[in-house]
Amino acid sequence: MDNRVFLAQCDTYEQAESAVGRVLAAFGGAETILAGRKRVLVKPNLIMPKKPDAAATTHPAVVAAVCAAFVKAGADVSIIDSTGGPHNKAVLKMLYSRCGMEDAAKRSGVVLCYDTGSRTVETPDGRVIKKVTLLAPVLDAEMVVSVGKVKTHGMMSMTGCMKNLFGCIPGLGKPNLHRKYPDRKEFAGMLVDVCEYIKPGFAVLDGVWGMEGAGPTGGDPKHLRVIAGGFNPYALDLAQCHLMGLRRDSVYTIAEAASRGLAPDDPEKLMWLGDNPERFRTQFLPAIKHKNDAVPEILNNCVGCGDCKRICPQKCIAIEDKKAVVDGKNCIRCYCCHEFCPAKAISLG
Ligand code: SF4
Ligand code: SF4
Protein backbone atom coordinates (compact mmCIF):
# COMPACT_ATOMS: atom_id res chain seq x y z
CA MET A 1 0.00 0.00 0.00
CA ASP A 2 1.41 3.40 -1.00
CA ASN A 3 0.43 5.88 1.72
CA ARG A 4 2.12 8.92 0.27
CA VAL A 5 0.11 12.09 -0.32
CA PHE A 6 1.82 15.27 -1.49
CA LEU A 7 0.26 18.68 -0.78
CA ALA A 8 1.30 21.80 -2.69
CA GLN A 9 -0.05 25.17 -1.66
CA CYS A 10 -1.74 26.86 -4.61
CA ASP A 11 -3.50 30.13 -3.81
CA THR A 12 -4.72 30.85 -7.34
CA TYR A 13 -5.11 28.92 -10.56
CA GLU A 14 -2.29 31.01 -12.06
CA GLN A 15 0.01 28.96 -9.81
CA ALA A 16 -1.42 25.59 -10.91
CA GLU A 17 1.41 24.69 -13.26
CA SER A 18 4.04 25.16 -10.59
CA ALA A 19 1.99 23.34 -7.93
CA VAL A 20 1.29 20.37 -10.24
CA GLY A 21 5.01 20.35 -11.09
CA ARG A 22 5.88 20.05 -7.39
CA VAL A 23 3.37 17.21 -6.96
CA LEU A 24 4.70 15.20 -9.91
CA ALA A 25 8.35 15.85 -8.98
CA ALA A 26 7.73 14.38 -5.52
CA PHE A 27 6.94 11.06 -7.22
CA GLY A 28 9.91 11.14 -9.59
CA GLY A 29 8.37 13.34 -12.32
CA ALA A 30 5.97 12.55 -15.17
CA GLU A 31 8.46 10.32 -17.01
CA THR A 32 8.98 8.10 -13.98
CA ILE A 33 5.22 7.92 -13.38
CA LEU A 34 4.66 6.93 -17.01
CA ALA A 35 7.14 4.05 -16.66
CA GLY A 36 7.22 3.53 -20.42
CA ARG A 37 3.46 3.87 -20.98
CA LYS A 38 2.43 6.15 -23.82
CA ARG A 39 -1.36 6.28 -24.24
CA VAL A 40 -2.57 8.40 -21.34
CA LEU A 41 -6.15 9.33 -20.61
CA VAL A 42 -6.74 12.27 -18.29
CA LYS A 43 -10.09 12.04 -16.50
CA PRO A 44 -11.20 15.34 -14.92
CA ASN A 45 -14.47 15.70 -13.02
CA LEU A 46 -16.86 17.28 -15.55
CA ILE A 47 -20.08 16.34 -13.84
CA MET A 48 -22.17 18.80 -15.84
CA PRO A 49 -21.61 21.75 -18.17
CA LYS A 50 -20.68 24.43 -15.63
CA LYS A 51 -18.21 27.26 -15.80
CA PRO A 52 -14.95 26.65 -13.91
CA ASP A 53 -15.60 29.32 -11.26
CA ALA A 54 -18.70 27.41 -10.05
CA ALA A 55 -16.19 24.94 -8.51
CA ALA A 56 -18.30 21.94 -9.60
CA THR A 57 -15.72 20.72 -12.13
CA THR A 58 -11.96 20.28 -12.20
CA HIS A 59 -10.43 23.61 -13.16
CA PRO A 60 -8.96 23.77 -16.69
CA ALA A 61 -5.69 25.22 -15.37
CA VAL A 62 -5.10 22.06 -13.32
CA VAL A 63 -6.11 19.78 -16.20
CA ALA A 64 -3.83 21.71 -18.59
CA ALA A 65 -0.89 21.50 -16.17
CA VAL A 66 -1.28 17.73 -15.74
CA CYS A 67 -1.69 17.16 -19.49
CA ALA A 68 1.30 19.37 -20.40
CA ALA A 69 3.57 17.53 -17.95
CA PHE A 70 2.76 14.11 -19.44
CA VAL A 71 3.03 15.43 -23.02
CA LYS A 72 6.47 16.81 -22.19
CA ALA A 73 7.42 13.38 -20.86
CA GLY A 74 6.53 11.83 -24.24
CA ALA A 75 2.94 10.62 -23.76
CA ASP A 76 0.00 10.85 -26.18
CA VAL A 77 -2.63 12.41 -23.95
CA SER A 78 -6.37 12.79 -24.36
CA ILE A 79 -9.11 14.07 -22.06
CA ILE A 80 -12.49 12.46 -21.53
CA ASP A 81 -15.50 12.44 -19.20
CA SER A 82 -19.16 11.53 -19.28
CA THR A 83 -22.00 13.22 -17.39
CA GLY A 84 -24.93 11.34 -15.86
CA GLY A 85 -27.14 12.19 -18.86
CA PRO A 86 -26.91 11.04 -22.48
CA HIS A 87 -23.35 10.45 -23.70
CA ASN A 88 -22.95 11.65 -27.27
CA LYS A 89 -20.76 13.99 -29.30
CA ALA A 90 -23.09 17.00 -28.99
CA VAL A 91 -23.20 16.68 -25.20
CA LEU A 92 -19.42 16.25 -25.04
CA LYS A 93 -18.89 19.34 -27.18
CA MET A 94 -21.04 21.46 -24.88
CA LEU A 95 -19.43 19.91 -21.79
CA TYR A 96 -15.85 20.53 -22.93
CA SER A 97 -16.64 24.03 -24.07
CA ARG A 98 -18.49 25.12 -20.91
CA CYS A 99 -15.98 23.56 -18.51
CA GLY A 100 -12.97 25.21 -20.18
CA MET A 101 -11.54 21.96 -21.53
CA GLU A 102 -11.19 23.27 -25.09
CA ASP A 103 -8.85 25.89 -23.72
CA ALA A 104 -7.03 23.35 -21.50
CA ALA A 105 -6.47 21.02 -24.46
CA LYS A 106 -5.25 23.84 -26.67
CA ARG A 107 -2.85 25.14 -24.04
CA SER A 108 -1.35 21.74 -23.35
CA GLY A 109 -1.38 20.32 -26.89
CA VAL A 110 -3.65 17.35 -26.14
CA VAL A 111 -6.77 15.91 -27.73
CA LEU A 112 -10.34 16.11 -26.46
CA CYS A 113 -11.78 12.64 -26.86
CA TYR A 114 -15.11 12.33 -28.72
CA ASP A 115 -15.12 8.54 -28.89
CA THR A 116 -18.47 7.64 -27.31
CA GLY A 117 -17.97 3.90 -27.59
CA SER A 118 -18.13 1.60 -24.59
CA ARG A 119 -17.50 -2.05 -23.77
CA THR A 120 -18.66 -4.36 -21.02
CA VAL A 121 -15.86 -6.12 -19.17
CA GLU A 122 -15.81 -8.79 -16.51
CA THR A 123 -14.47 -7.79 -13.11
CA PRO A 124 -13.78 -11.18 -11.51
CA ASP A 125 -12.08 -9.60 -8.50
CA GLY A 126 -15.00 -7.26 -7.85
CA ARG A 127 -16.72 -7.77 -4.52
CA VAL A 128 -19.96 -6.08 -5.54
CA ILE A 129 -19.95 -6.14 -9.35
CA LYS A 130 -18.73 -8.89 -11.61
CA LYS A 131 -19.02 -6.91 -14.83
CA VAL A 132 -19.20 -3.26 -15.76
CA THR A 133 -19.60 -1.14 -18.88
CA LEU A 134 -16.83 1.43 -19.28
CA LEU A 135 -15.94 4.08 -21.84
CA ALA A 136 -13.87 2.45 -24.59
CA PRO A 137 -11.09 5.09 -24.41
CA VAL A 138 -10.65 4.25 -20.72
CA LEU A 139 -10.22 0.58 -21.56
CA ASP A 140 -7.86 1.35 -24.43
CA ALA A 141 -5.58 3.68 -22.44
CA GLU A 142 -2.34 2.37 -21.01
CA MET A 143 -2.67 4.73 -18.06
CA VAL A 144 -5.57 6.72 -16.62
CA VAL A 145 -4.87 9.83 -14.55
CA SER A 146 -7.74 10.83 -12.28
CA VAL A 147 -7.83 14.60 -11.85
CA GLY A 148 -10.53 15.03 -9.23
CA LYS A 149 -12.15 17.97 -7.48
CA VAL A 150 -12.62 18.60 -3.76
CA LYS A 151 -16.41 18.60 -3.25
CA THR A 152 -19.11 17.55 -0.87
CA HIS A 153 -21.60 14.96 -2.12
CA GLY A 154 -25.17 14.17 -1.06
CA MET A 155 -24.96 10.39 -1.16
CA MET A 156 -21.24 9.67 -0.56
CA SER A 157 -20.48 12.77 1.61
CA MET A 158 -17.57 13.79 -0.59
CA THR A 159 -16.15 13.24 -4.05
CA GLY A 160 -12.49 13.36 -4.99
CA CYS A 161 -10.10 11.32 -7.13
CA MET A 162 -11.59 7.89 -6.46
CA LYS A 163 -15.27 8.63 -7.02
CA ASN A 164 -14.25 10.70 -10.05
CA LEU A 165 -13.76 7.39 -11.86
CA PHE A 166 -17.51 6.71 -11.69
CA GLY A 167 -17.57 9.10 -14.68
CA CYS A 168 -15.81 6.35 -16.71
CA ILE A 169 -19.20 4.64 -16.83
CA PRO A 170 -20.99 6.08 -19.85
CA GLY A 171 -23.97 8.40 -19.38
CA LEU A 172 -27.14 6.75 -18.21
CA GLY A 173 -25.27 3.68 -16.97
CA LYS A 174 -24.68 5.69 -13.81
CA PRO A 175 -28.32 6.10 -12.70
CA ASN A 176 -28.80 2.42 -13.53
CA LEU A 177 -26.09 1.52 -11.02
CA HIS A 178 -27.76 3.77 -8.46
CA ARG A 179 -30.94 1.75 -8.92
CA LYS A 180 -29.06 -1.53 -8.69
CA TYR A 181 -27.10 -0.58 -5.56
CA PRO A 182 -29.31 1.73 -3.46
CA ASP A 183 -27.51 0.80 -0.23
CA ARG A 184 -24.68 3.26 0.41
CA LYS A 185 -22.16 0.71 1.61
CA GLU A 186 -22.85 -1.48 -1.38
CA PHE A 187 -22.62 1.51 -3.70
CA ALA A 188 -19.26 2.41 -2.14
CA GLY A 189 -18.13 -1.19 -2.71
CA MET A 190 -19.13 -0.91 -6.36
CA LEU A 191 -17.11 2.33 -6.67
CA VAL A 192 -14.05 0.62 -5.20
CA ASP A 193 -14.53 -2.29 -7.62
CA VAL A 194 -14.60 0.16 -10.55
CA CYS A 195 -11.51 1.98 -9.29
CA GLU A 196 -9.69 -1.31 -8.75
CA TYR A 197 -10.50 -2.40 -12.29
CA ILE A 198 -9.34 0.89 -13.86
CA LYS A 199 -6.33 1.16 -11.53
CA PRO A 200 -5.43 4.78 -12.25
CA GLY A 201 -1.70 5.29 -12.72
CA PHE A 202 -1.74 8.58 -10.83
CA ALA A 203 -4.19 10.96 -9.17
CA VAL A 204 -4.19 14.73 -8.85
CA LEU A 205 -6.72 16.62 -6.73
CA ASP A 206 -7.88 20.17 -7.49
CA GLY A 207 -8.46 21.74 -4.10
CA VAL A 208 -7.58 25.33 -4.98
CA TRP A 209 -11.29 26.06 -4.81
CA GLY A 210 -13.48 23.24 -3.56
CA MET A 211 -17.24 23.05 -3.08
CA GLU A 212 -19.05 23.00 0.26
CA GLY A 213 -22.73 22.68 1.12
CA ALA A 214 -25.03 21.34 -1.57
CA GLY A 215 -22.36 19.50 -3.56
CA PRO A 216 -21.48 18.06 -5.93
CA THR A 217 -23.06 20.69 -8.22
CA GLY A 218 -25.18 23.14 -6.24
CA GLY A 219 -22.89 24.13 -3.35
CA ASP A 220 -20.70 27.15 -2.77
CA PRO A 221 -17.04 27.57 -3.71
CA LYS A 222 -14.62 27.29 -0.80
CA HIS A 223 -10.99 28.38 -0.97
CA LEU A 224 -8.81 25.48 0.20
CA ARG A 225 -5.63 26.61 -1.64
CA VAL A 226 -4.15 23.21 -2.31
CA ILE A 227 -3.31 20.78 -5.11
CA ALA A 228 -2.62 17.25 -3.92
CA GLY A 229 -1.42 14.11 -5.64
CA GLY A 230 -0.20 10.57 -5.27
CA PHE A 231 -0.31 7.07 -6.68
CA ASN A 232 -3.04 5.89 -4.31
CA PRO A 233 -6.48 7.49 -4.92
CA TYR A 234 -7.85 6.03 -1.67
CA ALA A 235 -5.06 7.62 0.35
CA LEU A 236 -5.83 10.91 -1.38
CA ASP A 237 -9.52 10.51 -0.44
CA LEU A 238 -8.58 10.02 3.20
CA ALA A 239 -6.34 13.09 3.09
CA GLN A 240 -9.13 15.10 1.45
CA CYS A 241 -11.66 14.05 4.09
CA HIS A 242 -9.24 15.21 6.79
CA LEU A 243 -8.64 18.57 5.09
CA MET A 244 -12.39 19.16 4.67
CA GLY A 245 -13.11 18.36 8.31
CA LEU A 246 -15.73 15.74 7.34
CA ARG A 247 -16.62 12.79 9.57
CA ARG A 248 -14.75 9.74 8.28
CA ASP A 249 -17.63 7.42 9.14
CA SER A 250 -19.86 9.34 6.73
CA VAL A 251 -17.54 8.60 3.78
CA TYR A 252 -18.32 4.96 3.01
CA THR A 253 -15.68 4.69 0.28
CA ILE A 254 -12.93 5.34 2.83
CA ALA A 255 -14.16 2.57 5.14
CA GLU A 256 -14.53 0.22 2.19
CA ALA A 257 -11.01 0.93 0.89
CA ALA A 258 -9.57 0.51 4.40
CA SER A 259 -11.39 -2.80 4.91
CA ARG A 260 -9.77 -4.12 1.72
CA GLY A 261 -6.30 -2.99 2.82
CA LEU A 262 -6.10 -0.38 0.04
CA ALA A 263 -5.57 2.61 2.33
CA PRO A 264 -5.28 3.31 6.04
CA ASP A 265 -8.38 4.18 8.06
CA ASP A 266 -6.76 7.11 9.84
CA PRO A 267 -5.10 10.21 8.36
CA GLU A 268 -2.34 9.91 10.95
CA LYS A 269 -1.22 6.76 9.18
CA LEU A 270 -0.74 8.61 5.87
CA MET A 271 2.70 9.72 4.80
CA TRP A 272 2.09 13.45 4.41
CA LEU A 273 4.59 15.07 2.04
CA GLY A 274 5.00 18.66 0.88
CA ASP A 275 3.27 21.51 2.69
CA ASN A 276 1.89 21.06 6.20
CA PRO A 277 -1.74 19.79 6.07
CA GLU A 278 -2.70 21.98 9.02
CA ARG A 279 -2.11 24.97 6.74
CA PHE A 280 -5.14 23.95 4.67
CA ARG A 281 -7.42 22.18 7.10
CA THR A 282 -10.82 23.84 7.30
CA GLN A 283 -14.43 22.93 7.99
CA PHE A 284 -16.59 22.31 4.92
CA LEU A 285 -20.36 22.49 5.35
CA PRO A 286 -21.69 19.01 4.51
CA ALA A 287 -24.11 18.40 1.62
CA ILE A 288 -26.82 17.20 4.01
CA LYS A 289 -27.09 19.21 7.17
CA HIS A 290 -29.30 17.21 9.49
CA LYS A 291 -29.88 13.59 8.62
CA ASN A 292 -28.38 11.59 5.84
CA ASP A 293 -31.57 9.96 4.59
CA ALA A 294 -33.56 13.07 3.75
CA VAL A 295 -36.09 12.82 0.92
CA PRO A 296 -35.30 15.55 -1.63
CA GLU A 297 -37.50 18.59 -1.17
CA ILE A 298 -38.51 20.65 -4.19
CA LEU A 299 -38.09 24.39 -3.62
CA ASN A 300 -40.17 27.26 -4.99
CA ASN A 301 -37.58 28.16 -7.63
CA CYS A 302 -38.22 24.90 -9.51
CA VAL A 303 -38.72 25.81 -13.17
CA GLY A 304 -40.29 22.49 -14.16
CA CYS A 305 -37.53 21.61 -16.65
CA GLY A 306 -37.86 17.88 -15.92
CA ASP A 307 -34.11 17.15 -15.70
CA CYS A 308 -34.62 15.53 -12.29
CA LYS A 309 -37.44 13.38 -13.65
CA ARG A 310 -35.25 12.16 -16.53
CA ILE A 311 -32.28 11.26 -14.30
CA CYS A 312 -34.21 9.65 -11.43
CA PRO A 313 -33.37 5.91 -11.50
CA GLN A 314 -36.56 5.08 -9.60
CA LYS A 315 -38.84 7.12 -11.86
CA CYS A 316 -40.40 8.60 -8.75
CA ILE A 317 -40.48 12.24 -9.84
CA ALA A 318 -43.43 13.72 -11.72
CA ILE A 319 -43.92 17.21 -13.12
CA GLU A 320 -47.23 18.66 -11.99
CA ASP A 321 -48.29 22.25 -12.70
CA LYS A 322 -44.76 22.97 -13.96
CA LYS A 323 -43.19 21.85 -10.69
CA ALA A 324 -41.39 18.64 -9.75
CA VAL A 325 -43.08 16.36 -7.21
CA VAL A 326 -41.19 13.54 -5.47
CA ASP A 327 -42.82 10.27 -4.48
CA GLY A 328 -40.90 9.69 -1.22
CA LYS A 329 -42.04 6.06 -0.85
CA ASN A 330 -40.01 4.89 -3.83
CA CYS A 331 -37.08 7.27 -3.41
CA ILE A 332 -33.77 5.49 -2.72
CA ARG A 333 -31.95 8.71 -1.63
CA CYS A 334 -29.37 8.51 -4.41
CA TYR A 335 -29.67 12.30 -4.89
CA CYS A 336 -29.09 12.14 -8.64
CA CYS A 337 -31.96 14.66 -8.94
CA HIS A 338 -30.19 17.07 -6.60
CA GLU A 339 -26.96 16.64 -8.55
CA PHE A 340 -28.52 17.40 -11.91
CA CYS A 341 -31.00 20.16 -11.08
CA PRO A 342 -29.78 23.20 -13.03
CA ALA A 343 -31.77 25.61 -10.86
CA LYS A 344 -30.53 24.51 -7.40
CA ALA A 345 -34.20 23.90 -6.65
CA ILE A 346 -33.78 20.68 -4.65
CA SER A 347 -32.94 20.74 -0.96
CA LEU A 348 -31.65 17.80 1.07
CA GLY A 349 -32.95 19.04 4.37
S1 SF4 B 1 -34.44 19.66 -12.25
FE1 SF4 B 1 -34.80 21.24 -10.72
S2 SF4 B 1 -35.78 22.92 -11.81
FE2 SF4 B 1 -35.91 21.12 -13.13
S3 SF4 B 1 -37.93 20.21 -12.61
FE3 SF4 B 1 -36.43 19.22 -11.29
S4 SF4 B 1 -36.41 20.42 -9.41
FE4 SF4 B 1 -37.43 21.64 -10.98
S1 SF4 C 1 -36.13 11.32 -6.20
FE1 SF4 C 1 -33.99 11.89 -6.34
S2 SF4 C 1 -33.05 10.89 -4.58
FE2 SF4 C 1 -35.01 9.89 -4.90
S3 SF4 C 1 -34.56 8.14 -6.23
FE3 SF4 C 1 -35.15 9.83 -7.56
S4 SF4 C 1 -33.20 10.80 -8.12
FE4 SF4 C 1 -32.80 9.49 -6.35
Domain module tally: 2
Portion in beta strands: 15-25%
Query: Rough shape?
Result: globular
Instruction: Summarize the amount of helix as a percent range.
Output: 25-40%
Q: Secondary-structure element sequence?
A: EHHEHEHHEEEHEEHHEEHHEEHEEHE
CATH architecture of the largest domain: 3-Layer(aba) Sandwich
Mean pLDDT: 96
CATH topology of the largest domain: Rossmann fold
In whole angstroms, how far apart are the ends? 38 Å
Give the ligands present: iron/sulfur cluster
- Within CATH, the superfamily of the largest domain carries the name LarA, N-terminal domain
The total of beta strands comes to: 15
- The radius of gyration computed from the alpha-carbon positions, rounded to a whole number of angstroms, is 19 Å
Number of helices: 12
Unreliable runs: none
- Major β-sheet profile: 9 strands, mixed
Oligomer: single chain
- Give the CATH class of the largest domain: Alpha Beta
Q: Look at the helices and sheets and give the structural class.
A: alpha/beta
Short characterization:
By secondary structure, this protein is of the alpha/beta class. It is built from 12 helices and 15 strands.
Descriptive key words:
Rossmann fold; nine-stranded mixed beta sheet; 2 domains; 12 helices; 349 residues; alpha/beta; Alpha-Beta Plaits; binds iron/sulfur cluster; globular
Description:
There is one protein chain. The protein has helices spanning 16-26, 30-34, 60-72, 89-98, 101-108, 136-140, 173-180, 184-198, 233-244, 252-259, 307-311, 336-340, and strands at 4-9, 39-44, 76-79, 111-112, 118-122, 131-135, 143-153, 157-159, 202-212, 220-230, 271-274, 297-298, 317-320, 323-326, 346-347. It is of the alpha/beta class and 349 residues long. It folds into two domains: 4-279, Rossmann fold; 297-347, Alpha-Beta Plaits, CATH 3.30.70.20. Strands 1, 2, 3, 4, 7, 8, 9, 10 and 11 form a nine-stranded mixed sheet that branches. The protein has a two-stranded antiparallel ribbon with strand order 5-6. A two-stranded antiparallel sheet has the order 12-15. α1 (16-26) crosses α3, α3 packs parallel to α5 (101-108) and α8 (184-198) crosses α10. It is globular, with a radius of gyration of 19 Å. Bound molecules: iron/sulfur cluster (2 copies). One iron/sulfur cluster binds next to α12.
